[in-house]
């Protein structure tokens, strides 16, 4: 008894058999059969899935198949009376080659089903069709293999050759169907074991056929088998062709590489080489750059930077990057791909550079040296080029150079030569500074004072930063400063030497911190925790201003009033400080409170301006570190008072910057005061009124509107096609001043102002590099602020029309991939590559984190016609990504990661737009975003696609049929999980109606 229908199982089968007998006698057509069959199904309530078994059983009773019954079965399946899977399963279960004509009949039937099936209206699920088609092709290959095996065993009836021919033709026709190819690609991931068996069978067919002599198997049959195997290989060819997310090869200069090099050379002089190399590798993959072209652009960017920075404060940075750091970058490339012909690619890169004769000539003239010759010699030190390659390159350079001959010797030494000499000097200095401070004070003193003369200290710092020795240098200065801060009761010259050691090391450390940030000491502290309690690090963290940000005045604590009074007495009366009994760090700690007393006394009339001037001069007369700590306190104090109370502290700051003469030339006062002046100017510049600021350090004019400054800067950059020195600093200060949301908004809107694809492409190449000023936070602003605002604003739809929307999609993909890669690299290595000034968590990150709190209430928003998917309305619940079948594991996603949250939120917004009833430029942007993410390939595209809601792809294809090819579909969906395979199979079947064969 059938529990579903309540009828005897034989009732339905009997009526079908009786219907077959009548159809046979009356020679019914397929339509007549269909009409009568439906009457039987309606009257008996039988299960249509049983029909194929009944029909096949009746058709294959004898040695020859009943063609009429097979035609009825064909009509029944193709008219959607029964699910195709039932017929496919019956066909593939037949393995009796002793009935060759029955096998031929089933092969024809399988071909008819697979080639004429309606994938969009099938009774079976799309995933079931995938498996059935794979099983069918596997069965056809088994038929061919078993037939070939019979021929090999000596059986050569014509029917066997007919089976081979028929199965080969059927397999070829089925395999040539692009929908079938895509479904087979999905099936390959559905059951890897079955697909492996399928692949093995194809190998067996090919191997067995090759073992048979040509006179046994006709050439036509061999060609048919070969054609079938070739068609089935197309399943493996669904891998996406190599495409660039951004095409820049037509531009005279690669703006992205040029910009990245500029930011690295100017803003990140102390960073490790490896993160920069990873950055270049990601850009190379996204832009699909040729390796020799990449090398050429690196060289070109360096020489352009050397020309641009000539006679400026940044000249040494560019020289250090070009001649000390760039060879290390090239060495890393060589180590990462040892199998490639690195030397040949590098030589080709130099060959491309040699085409830029005017640039090379101008660089030689500006630097007063053979710039290219110097770089090639540095590459030779790392064995990156062979001697014949070097000679050929230099010969070509000499022959093609058009620069004028030198009439006289240069008056100044070239920066390239200076920085190369400084590299070896750094090594010897570090060895000297390793000496025992208590035994070699005079030697240490000599080395430190020698560094203060002229540009020596700047050269040493530039070379140490480029070679990765700056942290070691700073560590040794900390050690010297710690030794010299306390007295051992020395007198005379020994006491004076200790004073100078403390003062010089303090000034050097201040200068290093101002140039490279307090982060320079972070790794040192992690490796040697004892340095965390050192005087200078403690003082710098609490008191030293950085990048225009002044520390809280309350950080000045731990005062000793008795020592403050003693210091005040010495300053007011002009008494000498007893060097033999003074702890110099205590002087520095108490000096701010002494100057506070002086300021308050002046403000209350207890001291006159002349008295204050004398006190300040006395504080400068011996120790240059005392004016520095006093100025740091005055700057912090001025940030806590109104404009009226700033006049006298400002006058004190200006007075401390005035140079005074020292009566004792042996104490190197001139050199120390020069360095002190540099430190003070940088410290107090941001606190000064606009009319007396140091304009060389200000790239945003006083009282200028930041948006106007940025507009002018970006126009200049876009017009030139590369980022100059001044633009780098201007953009950095604008980012510091206005934040990443504002910065990203203005940059993107400026880019979208153009309507020509060439201009948009160049603008995006430049902005992608500019965004590396603070890639992580700007990417978050792009995903959370700028793009959602454009998508949700009705009056900005024109900015999403192509090619603008197309370029904006590229910008999103480029930033997402670069930010995700940078974060993963930072997780493996140190954070030394993080731009200083941006290491703190942003407001955006803290907002994202606060939304994870269960008590946080979403902000109420006005209802509109469109779904408003925003940060707070969705709360970043990533459950929508975990839609899965029973037993399927949830995807592993770091829900705390801000980039993950931002990307998930943006794709949810896109999903809402895709489900709206209107097709608009927003929809086109979504399609472009997905298409560009596919071009990234591999792990990059998988990172983005994991956040696509399961129903989004199908909905887009309903709205815009055929917008994605089958090849794209199988790379959008995650075929590693059942849900992804279901979505892929469904979308491929949807596509079959729009993209017919």
Automatic annotation (TrEMBL):
GO biological process terms held by the UniProt record: positive regulation of transcription initiation by RNA polymerase II
Protein family per UniProt: Belongs to the Mediator complex subunit 24 family.
Keywords per UniProt: Activator, Nucleus, Transcription, Transcription regulation
Region feature Disordered, mapped onto this chain: 833-856
Keyword Cytoplasm: no
GO CC annotation: mediator complex
Organism: Mizuhopecten yessoensis
Composition bias type Basic residues, residue spans: 833-843
InterPro entries reported in the protein's UniProt record: Mediator_Med24
Short name of any one Pfam family annotated for the protein: Med24_N
Protein's name according to its UniProt entry: Mediator of RNA polymerase II transcription subunit 24
UniProt keyword annotation of Nucleus present: yes
Compartments, as annotated in UniProt: Nucleus
A GO molecular function held by the record: transcription coregulator activity
